Amino acid sequence: MCWIIGIDEAGYGPKMGPLVVALTAWRVPPHPSAGQPEYLENLLRPHVRRCDRPTTDPHALCIDDSKKVYRSRGELDRLEQGALALLVLAGFTGNDLTSLLEFVDIRADKSWSELPWLKEIPVAVPACVDISVPSRSASTLGDTMLRRGVVLRRCRCRVLPELEFNATIERWGSKAMLVAHAMCELLSEVLPDVDCELYVYTDRQGGRVYYREIINLLQDYGDEKGWEVVSESPQLSRYARRTASDYWRWDFVRKGEEIFAVAAASMIAKYIRELVMLAFNAFWQREIPELRPTAGYPKDAKRFKQQISKRQCELNIPDRWLWRTR
Questions:
Q1: Cβ within 8 Å of residue 316, ≥6 positions away
Q2: Model confidence pLDDT, tens digit, residues 47-66
Q3: 276 and 161 in contact (C-beta within 8 Å)?
Q4: Which of 114, 219, 258, 296 would be a feasible disulfide site paired with 14, CB 3.0-4.6 Å?
Q5: CA dist., res. 122 & res. 125, Å (int)
Q6: Sign of CA dihedral 150, 40, 4, 18
């Protein structure tokens, strides 16, 4: 068997709401083309599709870059159908946001657990679609995966709300390093199970070309085996390590969300962030009924923060719980 892993994030730019870094890890049959980016997606066709590509199956699950699947709050149902189907295939059986966060973020210390909007505001999962929709999609895709020897072994996330985001920025100095550590931490949960070929795909981080600093971080999370630079270019930066028994590769790819495993991670990260923002907005609209919701991006977040400031003070909620320093 081989492993294919995709990693992506949602919420890098906003001033409010969590940054979510997600990983999907798949086991697939060995094949000479297993190291090709399209290999996993080809195995799952025709029961998966991209937003703008035709398919012979009208019920095919849409798995694509979350920015294409979800462009406004009115499209949460489309994002939810795909993301939740993947989560169900990975073993999620809960019915609310709290159980979903517990499933994807398995750390013992979860800074999000004490936030008032997550403690006091229930968010059902699914939030928009009937439960039968993602369940049916998961069943159909699951049958295809079974026939073709594909297993979705992990859907994992690091959910970093503002409080943890700010503390981590102080520790590591930048958002880029925060994401780098989150990626390596997620990988460290999977690597002990990998005893065969491994292909990791990530979108280029801020347009960078050189990622040796990130690769070297794996040593801090228990992977002491040496990685070598294969290539570094604006299109693809590739790192690999080879032993007598296995070959591992990590690609940082321009337009990485076009790779199926990365697109799946992108959708899960975005879905979880949007559910947290549902709770966040519902909490503040409970306190200030006429308040318009926010997606957390800088200009509108400033408006939102000004409008909640009086009530925030009355509730003794500190800025560090809801406002990013960067």
A1: none
A2: 898 887 766 666 788 899 99
A3: yes
A4: 296
A5: 10
A6: negative
Tens-place pLDDT, residues 34-48: 999 999 999 998 889
Helix (H, G, I), strand (E, B) or coil at 26: strand
Q: What is the pTM of this model?
A: 0.95
Phi-psi group of 296: left, alpha or beta (phi > 0 → left; psi -120 to 50 → alpha; rest → beta): left
Burial of 255 (0-12, 13-18, 19+ CB in 10 A): exposed
Residue 202's closest CA among 45, 68, 4, 69?
4
Tokens of 303: 């408006």
Which alpha helices (H) appear in 148-240, and where do they start and end?
162-172, 175-190, 212-217
Rounded (10°) CA dihedral 103, 67, 6, 16: -50
Mark 45-65 as b/e (b = at least 16 C-beta within 10 Å).
bebbbbeeeeeeeeebbbbbb
Query: Distance from first CA to last CA of the chain, Å, rounded?
Result: 42
Residue 136 identity:
R
Greatest Cα pair distance, the chain, in angstroms, is 64
Return the DSSP state at 53: S
Pairing of strands 2-10, 228-232: unpaired
| pLDDT tens per residue, range 277-319 | 999 999 999 999 999 999 999 999 999 999 999 999 999 999 9
Q: How far is CA 292 from CA 16, 124, 278, 287, 288, in A?
A: 14, 21, 12, 12, 9
Place of tokens 């798995």: 63
Burial of 176 (0-12, 13-18, 19+ CB in 10 A): middle
